[in-house]
């Protein structure tokens, strides 16, 4: 078996002596999408924050392409190719859609503060490169008509697409999505699903945290199911939907 792009082993994190995540293993193969599901309180958000670097683990390891990253800051993980789409849509008011997308490339810039402060040629070249990359990302998520308009005017569904564009501007090796469809209407959810499907078809490696079983079944190659901080099942979407432990803990008897 080939080495996965992302592997986590024995991850654990407690709060006040209670483990939100306890001994979790997972893997995401290059070019594949892993879905992580579970009921409320299962530990999904904590697991996401451990992988993204928002929280330190009490124990366990996280490896990106064989390199240990669990001791690295989110910024350093971003430099290694880990990009994040958070659950809550965040836009920078007073900036255009294109400028918002450009922010995603910040972690990958190399020119440094002095070059930026004095507008040295290396900084100007980097700015042009970032703007070009951001425009490509905006087109990729279907927001080209909005590129030069204020980002705060976007409807919620398109704000979420803008978050994806911002993440893509960093040219990630691994894209982490934390319940990206949360709060979206049916039509917006469908548009976002189509976008994620296209990214998957393009070969982008993704880890998708979601509570929507149907959405995960549609988008993920494999699914990991959490309950009370533990992995209770792992397999293809079809295998997960038939697993009695998943039906009992999460989906409900009507889905059996």
Write the layout of secondary structure elements.
Elements: E1 6-15, E2 18-28, E3 33-37, H1 44-52, E4 59-64, E5 67-68, H2 74-79, E6 82-85, H3 97-102, H4 113-117, H5 121-140, H6 156-168, E7 174-178, H7 186-201, E8 205-209, H8 213-219, E9 222-227, E10 230-235, H9 237-242, H10 244-251
Parallel strand pairs: 3-8, 3-9, 6-7, 7-8
Antiparallel strand pairs: 1-2, 1-4, 4-5, 9-10
Helix pairs in contact: 5-6, 6-7
Please describe what this structure looks like.
The protein has helices spanning about 45-50, 75-80, 95-100, 115, 120-140, 155-170, 185-200, 215-220, 235-240, 245-250; strands at about 5-15, 20-30, 35, 60-65, 65-70, 80-85, 175-180, 205-210, 220-225, 230-235. The model is unreliable at about 110-120 (pLDDT under 50). It has about 260 residues and is α/β, with parallel strands linked by helices. The strands form two sheets. The protein has a six-stranded mixed sheet, sandwiched between helices. It has a four-stranded antiparallel sheet with strand order 2-1-4-5, with helices on one face. It has two domains: about 1-80 and about 175-255, P-loop containing nucleotide triphosphate hydrolases (Rossmann fold, 3-Layer(aba) Sandwich), CATH 3.40.50.300; about 90-155 and about 165-170, no CATH class. It is built from ten helices and ten strands. The longest helix is centred in the middle third of the chain and has 20 residues, at about 120-140.
